[in-house]
UniProtKB/TrEMBL annotation:
Name recorded for this polypeptide: MFS transporter
A Gene Ontology molecular function term of the record: transmembrane transporter activity
InterPro entries (UniProt xref): MFS, MFS_dom, MFS_trans_sf
Pfam families: MFS_1
Transmembrane segments annotated in the record for this chain: 38-55, 67-86, 92-114, 126-148, 154-176, 188-208, 220-239, 251-272, 292-312, 324-343, 349-371, 392-413, 448-472
Presence of keyword Transmembrane helix: yes
Location, primary (coarse class): membrane
Domain Major facilitator superfamily (MFS) profile: 1-476
Gene3D superfamilies reported in the protein's UniProt record: MFS general substrate transporter like domains, Multidrug resistance protein D
Organism whose genome encodes this protein: Devosia ginsengisoli
One cellular-component annotation, GO: membrane
Membrane topology of this protein: Multi-pass membrane protein
Length: 476
């Protein structure tokens, strides 16, 4: 049973950690535009973030084993379609279905451990799950980067194909080793809330990203679709306030600690998600670095998170979460600012790597104290919902970041092409046949576009530090 939970989590972690490195290969192999690449990420994040709270409640309503197994099956089936996708549109649709499967799979991985193990053995089982998840997060990009470098652009398909054996093994273990649990027949599901949240996020993402071109969507397009999304978001809030069984209990936000923790989560994970989506594209498609090099350069982030999380959790118990999160967020801000400043050097080892080390140190100080801040800000009976809300906020932040910063990237890139603006040159795509002067303009435009992202995300990281200091507990 523990192995089944680990395998299911591994599929989600591999997809999440490797996709940014695989995006340049996907663009080259399928001829995908920048907006297509954004939707490859956001199609998945959209349904995962909108449905993850409903997914957890559905497991309680229809039986955890049943829903967990269904989520794995949908995820694996969609992964196969991703691996075989002949066009960007098919890949985007399959990624959206993957997100639906993940929304019902991800909440079940820990819940099924909690139900299967007695309380005195639960900590050890969860520790093994966390260790395996950390290993997957670290090893996934390394393996993916070397496979992409060795086998070429087509091998991005293997990132999705690996989910077939992992998923089938997880389903077999789940079916034969996990006893059926008893559904809570009287539990109500907030289906209307889930539909409103999904449609609101979809319209906002479409308004910011557009329908697949390399350029910035017209202002009229953004106003129309984002406006519709905001109206639906307002409707979602009204519905949640009146629903007898809301998937997002708004009363939790009356607590300033809970509201502050989620506000800084949005700002910080917007910054992290946006930077880590566009950095690999800049290095691989812009500078011409190999995926293997990029995966090695990004390795300190996963290592630092794994090594520092337990220590920062202990420090948060002693000093309170505010000082740790504020200090960590400022380190993250410094790392992003350094990435922007050093972009013109095009040096993965002497410029990017030190910034990633600093980023890892900062996030290592943030993650555990942030989870503790969320859990301690609510009553014991609400910790599960609070954790789910914070998880959803982090994923929505990544969704909005990829969509909104894409407009920034496209706009700055176009403005900096200068005399090469009329040529078929696009951000994050290697362009052959350019003269030395034209290629220099392409590189300068790439650096300027990524630097704009880095400075915006650095500023948001400073905002998250301020919110942490002002709203969370300090024990001194």
């Amino acid at each position: 049973m523990l192995v089944a939970a680990i395998l299911a989590s591994s599929m989600g972690f591999i997809d999440g950690s490797v996709i940014s490195i695989a995006i340049p290969a996907i663009r080259a192999d399928l001829g995908a535009t920048l907006a297509d690449a954004q939707w490859v990420s956001n199609g998945y994040l959209l349904f995962l973030s909108a449905l993850i709270l409903l997914g957890g409640a559905t497991g309680d309503r229809f039986g955890l084993r049943n829903v967990f197994g269904l989520g794995i099956a949908v995820f694996v089936a969609a992964s196969i379609v991703c691996a075989l996708a002949p066009t960007p549109l098919v890949l985007v649709i399959a990624r959206a279905v993957q997100g639906i499967g993940a929304a019902f799979m991800v909440p079940g991985s820990l819940a099924i451990i909690a139900k299967a193990y007695p309380r005195e053995e639960r900590g050890k089982a969860i520790g093994m799950w966390a260790a395996a998840s950390s290993l997957t997060t670290i090893a996934g990009p390394i393996i993916g980067g070397f496979v992409l470098t060795a086998l070429g652009d087509w091998s991005w398909r293997l990132v999705f194909a690996i989910n077939l054996p992992l998923g089938l093994l997880a389903l077999a273990l789940l079916w034969f080793r996990v006893a059926p649990d008893h559904p809570e027949v009287g539990r109500k599901l907030d289906v209307i809330g889930a539909v409103l949240a999904t449609l609101a996020l979809m319209l906002i993402a479409y308004g910011l990203t557009g329908d697949g071109s390399e350029s910035v969507p017209p202002l009229s397009h953004t106003i129309l679709w984002c406006g519709g999304g905001l109206v639906l978001a307002a409707g979602f809030i009204v519905w949640e306030a009146r629903s007898p069984h809301p998937m997002l209990p708004l009363g939790l936000f009356a607590n300033i600690g809970f509201s502050g923790a989620n506000a800084l989560t949005f700002a910080l994970y917007f910054a992290l998600g946006g930077t880590m989506f566009y950095l690999p594209m800049t290095m691989i498609g812009g500078w011409g670095e190999s995926p293997a090099t990029v995966s090695l350069v990004l390795l300190p982030l996963g290592i630092s998170l794994t090594l520092l999380s337990s220590l920062s959790g202990k420090w948060a118990d002693r000093f309170g979460p505010a000082p740790l999160i504020a200090a960590g967020s400022l380190l993250v801000a410094a790392a992003f600012a350094a990435l922007g400043l050093t972009a013109p050097l095009h040096d993965p080892w002497l410029a990017v790597l030190p910034s990633i080390v600093l980023l890892g140190l900062g996030m290592g100080l943030v993650v555990s104290p942030l989870s503790a801040a969320v859990m301690t800000s609510v009553d014991d009976g609400d910790t599960g919902v609070a954790s789910g809300v914070n998880n959803a906020v982090a994923r929505v932040a990544g969704l909005v970041a990829v969509a909104l910063l894409g407009a920034v990237v496209a706009s700055v890139f176009e403005q900096n092409l200068d005399s090469a603006a009329e040529l078929p040159i696009f951000f994050g795509v290697v362009t052959d046949g350019l003269s030395g002067e034209e290629d220099a303009l392409r590189l300068a435009a790439t650096d300027a576009a990524f630097a704009a992202v880095a400075y915006i995300t650095a500023a948001l990281s400073v905002v998250s530090a301020a919110v942490a200091w002002l709203t969370l507990e300090r024990k001194f």
